[in-house]
Amino acid sequence: MKTAISIPDELFARAEATAKRLQVSRSELYSKAIAEFVDRAIEQNVTEQLNHVYGSHKAQLESPFYVAQLQSIDPDAW
After folding, report:
1. Cβ pair 25, 16 in contact under 8 A
2. Nearest C-alpha neighbor of 16 from the set 33, 38, 36
3. Which end of the chain, N or C, is less surrounded by CB atoms within 10 Å?
């Protein structure tokens, strides 16, 4: 799909230099950059949702689980 965007001249120059250095086309560079941006935004949204869901839960283990966890750690490993 073709599209037109407006970006600052300095950003365009940096993108051109990066595409040249990476030996990729401008379209490939922009496609990869947008894909990365979208992926990060989705991951951030998932993290925010998980924080919202689990943010009110107590993070401390109940005593039997805490003791079992401590006993499972090899003291020599540290």
Report:
1. no
2. 33
3. N
